[in-house]
Every structure is written in structure tokens, then in C-alpha cells.
Batch of 4 targets.
Target 1
Amino acid sequence: QAVVDFERLAEHAAVFQGHDVGFCCLGTTRAKAGADGFVRVDRDYVAQAAELARAGGCKQFVLQSSQGANAQSSFLYLRVKGEVENLVRAVGFDRCAILRPGVLLCKRQESRPMEWVTQQFLGVVARVFPTAFSVPVETVARAMVACVLQPGEEKVKVLENKAIHELGKA
């Protein structure tokens, strides 16, 4: 494990050398980082890390994005997620998987009251519609690994929430 300063990521290029696969789950919230900070973390840091990984020899990249990601969205969160997806695609990995999970179900150390309420509600909804709106983080992690272990023919593969559930159970 290496600790890097994302504000000076180019100075840590050696950390990105010699890896076949890159996994990226980096993200923050607008509430925590402000609008500019959110864009910097969720788009700029991710895109720069992908570029450094590719320059270091990385052949395959797996990105956790978000359900509804769309570079044309009027919502900042969805627009930034769509923009970073496009930037990562443009890097030119041999293979790239983009996972678009719904609400991530997990226990956090930090307090996010609205997210907690949403998770409680979606936990009930998930009993009836298990793949519609949410997904446990463990399922996302298994699906990300499965993208590497069971690669398809596509250069870029986009998995929506239901496909993440299916692949994460395999």
C-alpha cells in the first residue's frame, strides 16, 4: 500500500508503475468537499490516476461510477460521474469495466443521516426488488474482481446495478 498526495499525484507516478489491473472506487460528497472539491476528487483525481496507471503499463481498469451517470446531466453528481467515465474510456486501456451501482449499502464510520434514512428505506425495498435501487458494497467488490477474472470481448463494458448484482453473486 502506498500513500499519495492527490494534489500532487504526478509526483507519485512510480506508484502506478508495473500493475496489470487498476481498481478505482475513489469519491467524496459535495457536502464534505464542496462542489469544486467534489469535482476535483470524483473527476480530476480519478482521471489523473487512470492516466498514470496506463502510462505505467496498466492494461485493464475497473471504475466504480454511479447509477444514472451522464455527462449531459443537469445534476452535478451525475454529470461528473458521466464525465469521468468518458475520460477513463479515452485513456485507452485494453479493457475497461465501468460499474454503475445504485445506492451503496454499507456501514460507515462517519455520520450521514440522510444516507442512513435512505439505506433503511432501500433495505426494505430491496426485499421486494433486490436489484432495482441499491447494492451492498461487498457485491460491488466481488463484481469488480469478477470483471477481471471473467473478462468479456468488449473493450469497454458498462454494468448497471442489476448486472452488478448478478456478477457479484457469481
Target 2
Amino acid sequence: RARLSRAQRPPRWARGIRGRRGGSDRSPQAGMAAEDEAELSLLECRVCFEPYGPDGERRPLNLPCGHVLCRGCVGALAGAERRRLECPFCRRLCGPAETSDCRPLLQLLELLGPAGGGLASALGRSGGGAAAGAPAGLGLRLCLGGWGSLVNPTGVAACPGSGRLAVAHDGEKRIHVFGPSGVCLRRFGVRGDAGNDIKYPLDVTVTSDGHVVVTDGGDCSVKAFDFEGRGVLAVREGFCLPWGLDATPESEVILTDSEAGALYRLAADFRRGELKKCQTIRSRLVSPRAVAVCQTSGAVAVIEHLKARGASKGSTRVTIFSEKMDLIGQMDSFGLNLVFPSRIHATAVAFDKEGRVIVTDVCSQAVICLGKPEEFPTFNPLISHGLSYPVGLTYTANNSLVVLDSGDHSIKVYSST
């Protein structure tokens, strides 16, 4: 029987319907094949069915409606004049200039590396090993956002006093504020080029005095807002690429600069909009991104993204400093592999109320406790099911664990059961 080309294949939704007919008679092998097919479709443009790539015509772009196409299909749909295009799935009109890079897919392609490979192996499925050792006690209490409500979210933070959650994402208004019950209270930080506009948010934190602080990779700045959405301060201290940030109990901000390889301490009077100091507290780091401050000990945890050699995949390193910035613990992906057999690629870090280091891992799609700095590292999976691509992590004042899942554009709140 002749094999159909990609252009001759029926749409994936049609193939999915045919596959579900008579589903009760399907074998486990057929079910696993269908699951693999669904996962692999994440890496293909749903218009041309060509695999996404990091550059050129195959680079995945996000439309304002939330659907993702490759750059080639965006150009083809826009036509020769490149004025307007219609989303082939929801029919919403937009201009090519309104598209943006689909960061979760680009990060996944980076994780897969030039050599490619199956998605299942890239995500490091442990065949149930992690789940078998996972302790009971954390249950999903609340799920917020979702496709269209949040677009490629990149950072999440909890207000220490009110319990509100601030989320940075790629929508028209870059910051969403959710109440403890899950209701969206406010949206602010519009996409634009003005001084207080946000071009591309990378991370967000909330200070103890109630200000939302955002790193903007678009113009390499740090911007602060009150909870009403009014811009109060924009800091441009010669940053190369400010990325992760977290607030101390004194409302200072610890900030990473990924390109400069540095860690900064930023102090400001946010109510008056006055910068007091911005000093380098650690240098010679390797592409530091996520950062967390322990609210009890003052310890600082940083995730470094180590550069890969040749065609090999990059790895990550979790580094712990004391409050005085003395190195007290460090472990890279290779060392963690000695504790846990699957490859670990850490994307976010936080401290729980006991001072233990918690990280998200996109390989096993899990949240893992690495223990206290003095016993670092141990290995204790906290969440091993229900996550797609966890990129953000924080704790609320009542000790609920908040995970930002960029894979399905949602915020998932877990509490003790």
C-alpha cells in the first residue's frame, strides 16, 4: 500500500476520531502508540505537519489567540503583502508583527538537542520509578489559567501577606494577578515600547510591601508595579539579560543576569520610586537563571545552565549560597544522576518553610525535594504526575506549593491532604 505524504494525510483531529472508534478493543500497545503519536505531534506544525526547528522557516511562533504555527506557515497565511492573517483554527485575525516565539517549544527543542530523538526519551520517563518512591500528602487543590487565558507563562510569585499570585506571561497584558480563590483580580503591564510597558517578561516576584517586580528581557530592565498596575520604578543598570529574581523579607530583590553570569542585590524605595543600590554580590556564574531566597536563613539557590560541548545536550547545576554569599552546596545534572537514574534538567527553584531546596524537572515532569543545604542533595519526588513542562515554583504563606506549568499554560496549586 502506498504511503501518504504529509500533505496527503488527513488532519490529526480526523485521525484521532478514527482511532477512538471501537476504543474498548484496543490493545495496550495500540494505546501506547497513540499516546506517543499525540506527544510527537507537539513537535510538528499542525498546518504543514513539518517538525519544528529552532531557526528559519520551522521556528514555532505563537499567535495572539494562543495557537502555534511555524514561521513558514505564518508567512504563507499572511500572503505577499504580509498585513493580516487568519488563524486556521479559531479564525481570529492578527498581523505577523503580533506573533511571538513559542518559548516552551523552543526550550523543548533545546532540551532535545541537535541530535533529536524521541520525545518520551527526552523527557526522561522513569517507567514508574519516581512515582513508586513519591510520598503521599500533596494533592492538587486548584488549577488556574489554561490555553488562551495565559500564553507561554514564564514566572509566578506569591504575595507574602495577601496570598495573591502574580503570573508573568506573553499575553497582551503581561501580568495577571489571581486571588487565593483563583479569581483573576487584575491584568496590567501592557505589551509595548513605553517606559513602563513590558516587552518580554522572564520572571516575577512580589515584595513583602506589596510590589510586583518583573524582569523584562525585551529591553534588559527590571520594572516594579504596585498591585493596582501602576509602574513605580524601572531599573536599567547596564544589565545584559536580567532573568530570575526573588524578594527577601526586607523587600530587597536578588536578581540573576544570565548573559553577564552575575547575581545582583537590588534595594529600592518602591513607594517613592527611588533606587537605593544595585550591587553585584556574585560573579563568574554560568548562565544563571532561576533564583530563590530562603525566607528563614537568607540562603540563596541559583540554577545555572551549563553550556554544552559539540552536539551534546546542555545540563543544569543547582548552586546554594549562604546569606553572606559563601558557597555551601552545589550539584549538577551529572551528580544528580548518581542519586536518581534519569537525566534531570532543573528549571525552577524554591525553598519550603523548613528551608529545603525544591526544584522542578522538565525531564521527569516532576517536582523534587533536594533536602536542606547542609544535607544537599537528597532525592524525594513531591509531584510526579500531572505536569507537562514545569517552569515556575513558589510557596504561599499557608505553605501551598504553586507550580507554573508552561506546557498547558496553567498554574497548579498543591496542598497537604
Target 3
Amino acid sequence: MSQGRAAAREAAKPQDQGWAWMVLLAAVLLQGLTLGFPSCIGVFFKDLQHEFQASNSETSWFPSIMVAVLHGGGPLCSILVKRFGCRFAVMLGGLLSGVGMVSSSFCKSISQLYLTAGLITGLGSCFSFQAGVTVLGFYFVRWRTLANAMASTGVSLGFTLWPLLSQYLLDEMGWRNTFLIFGGILLNCCVCGAIMRPVQLASASPLHSPKPAEEPERRAEGAQLSNGPCSSHPKFQQQQTRRTACFQLLQKYLAFDIFCQNKGYQIYTIGVTWMMMGFALPHIYLVPYATQNGVEERRAALLISVIGFINIFIRPLTGLLSGLRFFTGRRIYLFSLAVFLCGLSNFICVISAEFRVLIIYCVILSIAMSGVGALTFQVLMDVVEMDRFSSALGLFTVLESIMLLIGPPLTGLLVDITSDFHYVFYNSSFFLISAALFMGLSFCTLEKK
């Protein structure tokens, strides 16, 4: 009898086995289609400038909005995941991404592009990507570190293939038809979402559904807050109810309570937020920088593909390395080291803009980026409980998105004023190196205390 119950419990747990690996494959494709997609925007930079007679700063708002919304839509994604599950969120995201890019092919001004490709496609990519990351945390326990690293290789595949495909289609069909085709490609996120069936416990309740115990706790909180001398007054009760509801929403979807109480999460969130001011700059400006310095357009697009290709092999190795018992509790230092190397590598571009020098830069940057990409979400899972991960991810990505939104346009404005692309790499190095030192030293101090 006990053997039968044990077998039933084992069958009800899909973690680390069976269908979990199909979900991992879907997550790989999702990350390539969503996080990898913005890597190709630099290929269209000059064409969009010429089409809409826009400056560097005006043109850079388009990828900035896309990437910022991709990272900043976390709270909305959390609501969708908690209410409808990961599968629905991923499929809705794929639909929005496809519609956004198809609409972009008909834009008549750069401001329309901000709405279609920037906001709509960015929001769709956010839903697909973040729900895909969340579902991995439920499907994998023992192999979670490896699963996150393997999933992040999808970003590398995207970095490799998107720029090459973009340059080919741009040469053959122009940017409008290329965006139309991209809309069809991004609809494949819906297929990936269909694979992510809800995880079932032995009690047949989805792992990512809200806990039944939460409701009595909320009532208790509401009773505590409304317990006072004026609690009998109807207006007072209404105000307290609204405040309680707002507090519960913030706690549930933005994890402000974790941010205030968990020092590790606080340090990591601030560090990564600061890092994002400089992290995206090379991906947006590397191709324009290379073409301005005499590199052929096809070869310039190849630079981004080199970064992605090397990442394909380095990210899984980083995941395996960080999964060793020795690094348990120390992954934040690996992450800080990777960010620090990213910052140092940018100085290579300042030395020379020759193609072979830029290839060396891309190789070094790619190795460092593999550590950042493979460890970002794993470190977050290390510092917060898994049942609050979706909420913690929401606040984490909202703060990231603010910096991702303002970083590239401000740097583009600086380039417009000075006509010197070197400031892109100076800025990037400053933010990356300072963020790495802050996180490493802060966690070291926290451990000593």
C-alpha cells in the first residue's frame, strides 16, 4: 500500500524528468525568439535613420523602449501567471509580439515605431520570456542551475542567427518586408507556450496557482490594520480597505516586502539595475560604430553573431561550473566577476575599430556575457524563496527596465553632441565595473556581518 502511494506521488511530480526536458527545449526557443531578438536592431539602425531622418538619440529610443518593456512588464506578467498560468502568458506574448512587428512594417514615422515595435512587441516578448523563466523553476529542482544555463543558450542562438537573418532579408527585401517576416517568426512563441502544460502536485493543484492559505492571512492583515479607535467609521474603513488592497498588490506582484527585508535581494537588485545602464549599449551601437569606421555592413552584422555563437558553448559550461557544490552560496561572486570582465572588455573598442580587433573584442565580451546570462536568474533564485520568485522577478525587472529605457538614448544624445562613438564604450565600462565592485564588496561585507 505504501509502495503504491509512493509511486503515485512520484508520478505526480514531473520535476527533473520526462516532459520537463521538452519544456526546457521550449524555453530555449523562447529565449532565442524574445531576448535574442533585440540583438538584430543595430542592423536596421542606419536604414531607419535615413528613412525617418532621425538622430542617433531618436532612433535609439525604439530598441530602448522594446528592451525596457521586455524587462519592465514583469508585474503584468506575474498577474497573468498567477491568474491564468504560464502557458497562457507565453501564448499571449507570442501573439502580441507577432502583431507588433507586422504593424511596424506599415509605420510612417519613428514615433509610430515606438508604439508598435517598441511597446507592443516588447510587452509580448516580456510575457513569453518571463513566464518561460518562471515555469522552469517549477519543472526543475535538482537540475535547476543547469536548466537555467541551458535555457539561456537560446539567447546565444538568437544573438547568432537574428543579425545574419536580418542583414540577408534587409539586403533582399528592405526593412519593411523584413519586419513583416519577423512578425510571423515571433508567432512561434505560441507553439512554445502550448508545450508548457501546468505542473500538477499530488493534490492535482497547479504549482503556480495561488496558495489557499493566502486568503486567511490577507483577512488577518486587513483586520489588524483596521483595528483602531476610528475603525467603526465607514469612510475610515473604506480607506483602510483600499490601503490594504494596494499593499497586498505591491507585496504580491512587486515584492517590496522582500526588497525591504532581504538584504541580499536588495543589494543584487540595486547592482543589476545600475549595471543595466551600460550593459545594452554595445549591442545597440556596435554595428553603427563598425560601419562608421569603414567596416562593411555584412561583416559588421557578423560581429553580433560571433558574440552569440561563442555564448552557445560557454553558457552551458558556466551553468555546470556554477552548479558545483563549491559555488553554492558563492554564485554572486562569479556573476560580479563576469560583469567586471564585460566592463574591461569595452576598452578594446576604444583602442581600435579595425575588424580583427573588433572580433577579439566580441570573443572576450562573449565569454564574460555568458557568465552574466547564465547566472542572472540563478542568483535571483538563490537569494529569494521560489514561491516568491515571480513577484521578486517583477520588481527586479521593473527597476532594470528604467535604466534600459534611459541608458541608450542618453548615450545616443552624447554621441550626437560629440560625434564620437567612443563615449558608448566609456559609459558602458563605467556602469559595468562600478556595479560589479558594488555587488562583490557588498555581499562580502554582508557575509562577514
Target 4
Amino acid sequence: QVSELVQFLLVKDQKKIPIKRADMLKSVIREYRDTYSEIVNKAAKTLQEVFGLQMVEIDTKRHIYILINNLRRAESEHLCKDKEKAKMGLLMVILSFIFMKGNSVKDSAVWEFLHRLRVYPGKHHKVFGDVRKLVTEEFVRQKYLEITPIPLTDPPEFKYQWGPRAAKETSKKDVLNFVAKIQGKNPTFWTSQYSQAEATP
């Protein structure tokens, strides 16, 4: 739940929308409402440590939160840089999903996963624009992702794998550490992924 909440908050923060406690309960925490404050505290700690973001309650009556950036942004960083950063964040989330699922994932699983993060294909996203285009065209063109048709599927299905650039710019180790930080676990928790990460330079 903590990792889902962290990702939910990051996506919300891209739009700079204040986050309501009710939304967190409804979208992420659901049946775990008894441990609500524990989950939120852990998520806040992760946001602070991993992303340098501080979760601040701006309305204590209605429980509304915002994320503020601790690392003072250099004035020269314009929105386009932030947009690029956000895209890279989304890419990192997709790459870690593919790796954790065994290095190859069906397209339906990718979209279902993004759906849970409130990022919808075919719906214009304020930061990412056309999400389907970004994932299936831009990330593929940039060689971060490889999408190949699965033979003999009707309707046609595709599998997603890391592209050559992803393997150069990041590593399985980095991705596993990213997931471990978000989930608050030790990378060795995932034995097969850990041994893969250790085996690849």
C-alpha cells in the first residue's frame, strides 16, 4: 500500500493538485483504513528520502495535503525541464514494473498498471500529454522500450521489454534499489531479481 500511495501522490503532484485524505482512502488505502496514518507516514518518509519532497497538510480540518520540493529549484529550471523529469519518472516506473515482472510484460498488464496510477492511455494527461503515444512511440523511438508483437494472438497482443538505451542509462540494480526504496524493503527481498541485478554489470 505504501508504494502504491507514493506513486499515486507523485502522479497527483505532477498536476500540482492538492491531495485530499478522502481520495487517498478511496483510491489507494481502501480496506486498510485502520492503518491509514501509518501508511501515510511511511509514504511521506519515502517521498522525503527518495524524491526530496515534503508532504504538508495545508488544511487540517478537511485533511488536504500538498507536496513541496525540499531541494530549492534553481530559478533557471523552466517547466520543460520539469516535464522531462516527470516523463523520466514515468519511464522509471514502467522499467521497474517490467523488470519486477520478469523482464517481459504484455501490453495489457502495462496499461492496467498505469491505470492504477491514474495515468490513462487515450486520455490527455496534463504533464505527459498523449500517454499512449509517449509510451508506444516516444519511449520506443528513444530506445528505452522495445515493443514486439506476440505471434498468433487475435486481437494482436504485444510484449514490452527494456530497450538498449534503458540498459545503458540505468541498470537492473538501480531499478531494484528504486523499487526497494519505494516499498521500504531490502533489495534482497526479491531473490530472483536480486541475483539478476547482481549478475548484470
